[in-house]
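== Protein entry: sequence and backbone fold ==
=== Local backbone shapes as whole numbers ===
==== Amino acids and backbone structure tokens ====
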Amino acid sequence: MFAAIWQNVFYLPVLNLLVIFHNILFDNLGLAIIAIAVIFRLILLPLMKRQTEMTRKMASLKPQIDALQKKYKNNPEKLSQEQIKLYKKVGYNPLGCLVTFLPQLLILSVLIQVIRNVTDSNLDGIYPFIKSWLENGNSLTINTNFLVWDLTKSFNDISAEFGRVSLQSFYYMLLAVLVGVSQFFMSKFTQVMQDPSATGDKKTKKKEGDISAEEMQKKMSQSFTWILPFTTIFIAISAPAALSLYWAIQSFMLVIQYMLLDWDKTEKGIQNLITRYKGSGSGKR
């Protein structure tokens, strides 16, 4: 039953939509993938808006949470109870992040299957009326070339054929690096959106033993900002270029979504980020 739902509700509609975009956008699979990435980000906009609003509400509770931590610093149980009361006031749900994460994971899983099948010339499942419209008396074929890439190939495929230092391999490595860069900016931007007032002033550092749980979480988040891009590049060099293209576009689209949903917070975060880097640059001189 699950397989039937997956096939008819998720896989087939996305497959047919991608094929339609390929036909409309000048028989260009790259442009079709970009269009799919943009559309799905627009579909997820209401969920992202809800998440942004909740983040704003949680940020407004920070002074109250700080006060509670001072008041009940020796009573963790009471502190937890009072924090839960505050969270309930703004309607915070610890599982709320799943509401935005799961649809994104679902869409990515569907697209991975669709793109892999399309790039393998497996077009089983095209609706008859769409097939009749697109074929127009000819056999239905997908053009997998986009700019300098064959979207069915990966860096590993090309390097095995032409060598790792060839120009052809360089283009695919460039795309893999672009995916990593997009992940870096997405992670960095997410941090800015969560804490736009943070300046990262190194002068306020505490002793290692005095680091709070919140500061520890920030350090872990900063480490993740660097780990994720390199992990992404490692995955992208073995994935078809079509998936790398989608991955990069949807990451940059996420940044644009945040900017559209909360421009004031975005502007403040970017200004403080620029101030931080200017400060660190002047400190080195």
Remarks:
- The radius of gyration is 23 Å.
- The beta strands are 145-146, 149-150.
